[in-house]
Design goal:
Blueprint: H1 3-6, E1 19-28, H2 32-43, E2 48-51, E3 67-68, H3 76-83, H4 85-108, E4 116-123, H5 129-142, E5 148-151, H6 153-159, E6 167-176, H7 179-192, E7 196-198, E8 205-207, E9 212-215, E10 219-228, H8 240-243, E11 246-256, H9 261-267, E12 273-276, E13 283-286, E14 292-299, H10 308-319, E15 328-339, E16 345-349, E17 353-357, H11 363-378, H12 383-389, H13 399-419
Parallel strand pairs: 1-2, 1-10, 2-7, 4-12, 10-17
Antiparallel strand pairs: 3-6, 4-6, 5-6, 8-9, 9-10, 11-14, 11-15, 12-13, 13-14, 16-17
Helix pairs in contact: 2-7, 2-11, 3-4, 4-11, 11-12
């Protein structure tokens, strides 16, 4: 059991799909994207059935670092070079809308997910400081975003008790939350709006047609529209036309014993979440019980490290050597999906199949936007969905079968650069 599962509180059990049923929309995947889409569609009056292979939030949505950041995974300078200022601004505005959806859902549905504001970028190399400062000024001048400010080395050291960073950038428009509690709150809201949720209902085969027929171990669901929202957990077999476009990788986290409020504030003064500029990202924050939740290290095998606590603890102690005496109560792994260009991919399968995947570690907020855009597309107003679907994503070299070993080689190279 991971920390989030241990502190999720009471959660309902949704029954498996049994027999043959029908719905306007079948949503495959009970994580952030699927729950967001299901809720938005139910609010529009559609009959929606959501199929989850395990339990709601059991994949990346209930295992991640809980960080809500601004913008896309790519910096605005790279987006402007690729798409031009207008399209880059549209991508920024959509990401701002994503954050607003998170805040609105928490407030409207009274989701107790321990939201706290503040998202701090920790800069590890002096050569990165000028570019990040320039981007901060650019965002204020051209994107009307004034929630970020730079921290010099002394200010950064006062905020985060680590010698690992040369500067930082605080984003008061971001924040962090308990991701599984947020997912379960979305599920309760969706069920209350009429969505039929079925756990332990793996979608094993889709018969595309009119209607589409989605097969599970104990039932069949007939639906006009099918939304593929499994991301890294969808697997290659269900719809191989799309799964080769993303790469599932494993990320690993720990939760320490409770440190108490004083020691927590001495470690991260303002209670914000933190993520570093390393290629293999370190990210950390304190929970509501003053446990340090630390994510560090990536692996490219489906099996976690044999000593998972020790594996992540080494990364933690590189940042916070003063925590060597702290006990580790939980450690867990999860899969996330990255795209080649680190932008989420929106697309269609046939006439009435839709998918979004590849958030590349930026999915807590962007998944909520994806759910809204999926609902708009199903309802026949697909203009915004199509703007994102029109982005020509680079494919992983090697195709479906060779993309993994080639990616591993590249990742190891960049991880080596982190250490040099």
């Amino acid at each position: 059991m991971n920390y989030y599962e241990a502190t999720a509180g009471e959660r309902p059990v949704y029954p498996p799909l049994d027999g043959e049923q029908a719905a306007d929309v079948c949503v495959i995947g009970g994580g952030f994207t699927g729950l967001s889409a299901a809720l938005h569609l139910a609010e529009r009056g559609y009959s929606v059935t959501l199929l989850e292979a395990g339990r709601v939030g059991c994949g990346a949505s209930g295992r991640n670092g809980g960080q809500v950041g601004s913008g896309q995974r790519c910096d605005v300078a790279a987006l402007e070079r690729r798409f031009g200022r207008d399209r880059a601004r549209l991508l920024w505005d959509l990401a701002e809308e994503a954050k607003a959806i998170v805040a609105e859902r928490i407030e409207r549905h009274a989701i107790d997910c321990h939201w706290r504001p503040g998202n701090l970028l920790a800069i590890t190399r002096t050569r990165h400081v000028d570019a990040i400062a320039a981007e901060t000024r650019h965002l204020a001048m051209h994107y009307d975003y004034h929630a970020m400010h730079m921290l010099d080395r002394a200010q950064m050291r006062a905020c985060v008790a680590s010698e690992a960073y040369v500067a930082g950038r605080m984003d008061r428009g971001g924040g962090h939350l308990h991701p599984l509690r947020f997912a379960l709150g979305l599920a309760r809201a969706a069920a209350g709006a009429g969505v039929r949720i079925h756990e332990s209902s793996t979608a094993s085969r889709i018969g595309w047609g009119a209607p589409n027929r989605v097969h599970t171990p104990r039932g069949v669901l007939r639906a006009t529209h099918v939304l593929l929202c499994g991301n890294a957990y969808l697997g290659d077999a269900l719809e191989p036309r799309i799964t080769g476009r993303i790469m599932p990788i494993a990320n690993h986290l720990l939760a320490s014993e409770p440190l108490g409020e004083a020691r927590a504030r001495a470690t991260i003064r303002d209670g914000c979440c933190v993520h570093a500029t390393r290629f293999v990202v370190d990210y950390f924050r304190f929970s509501a019980e003053h446990r340090l939740i630390f994510g560090g290290g990536e692996t490219y095998s489906p099996d976690p490290p044999a000593d998972l606590k020790g594996f992540v603890r080494r990364h933690m102690l590189r940042v916070f050597p003063q925590l060597a005496d702290v006990g580790i109560d939980y450690a867990w792994s999860g899969r996330l999906a990255i795209s080649m260009d680190r932008l989420p991919e929106f697309g269609r399968v046939g006439r009435n199949g839709w998918f979004v995947h590849g958030y590349s570690g930026h999915g807590v907020a962007l998944s909520q936007l994806a759910g809204r855009l999926l609902a708009e597309a199903v309802a026949g107003t697909a203009e915004r969905f199509d703007v994102l679907a029109a982005i020509a994503h680079r494919r992983f070299p090697g195709g479906r079968w060779l993309r993994h070993p080639l990616l591993v080689a590249g990742m190891l190279w960049y991880a080596l650069r982190d250490r040099l």
